[in-house]
Design goal:
Largest sheet: 3 strands, antiparallel
Number of strands: 3
Structural class: alpha+beta
Helix content: 40-55%
Strand content: 15-25%
Number of helices: 5
Distance between the termini: 62 Å
Order of helices and strands: EEEHHHHH
Radius of gyration: 20 Å
């Protein structure tokens, strides 16, 4: 099995865009991962395609070898390239899991817990008043959440 190409997909989440990476193989098995940095989707997408020549033709099941090859070959690897390398690595884990018939978490040492807590998030481009955040909190609590992430920015004129 060999990697044939990397594809990217930008998906709008309303308040930001996500970038998904698809590592394709000659056997038809593919892996998916995410490579999102807020505000740098085009830059990140370009970086995915810049790194493609390091992985095309490689066996995606040789995950550590691929990651080490990228890190040791690029002399001045930066934050975005490291994040993209991580996305390629996760997509390769996805491929390995699919070929073995097991989920990634099982490959990485097994399940650690039966459930995890999650918080509601995503009101960055909305009204920034305390009353609005109270209404948001009531809405997400009604949906079963026990926590929210909210950050209010108060300007001097508002005080």
């Amino acid at each position: 099995m060999k990697i044939t190409k990397l594809e990217t997909y930008t998906v709008s989440a309303g308040w930001k865009n996500w970038l998904f990476v698809k590592v394709c193989t000659d056997s038809g098995v593919y892996g998916i991962s995410e490579a999102t940095i807020n505000g740098f989707i085009a830059t990140t997408e370009t970086a995915v395609h810049e790194l493609a020549h390091f992985v095309v033709g490689k066996d995606p099941r040789q995950i550590n070898a691929i990651a080490n090859h990228i890190i040791t070959t690029i002399a001045d690897v930066g934050h975005i390239h490291r994040m993209v390398m991580g996305a390629i690595e996760v997509a390769c884990w996805d491929i390995l899991g699919k070929t073995l018939g097991v989920p990634i978490w099982q490959l990485l040492g097994g399940k650690h817990r039966d459930s995890i807590l999650a918080y509601a998030n995503g009101w960055y481009r909305t009204e920034r008043t305390p009353e609005h955040f109270i209404n948001i909190a009531k809405t997400v609590v009604a949906k079963g959440f026990k926590a929210i992430k909210a950050r209010s920015v108060w300007h001097r004129e508002m005080v």
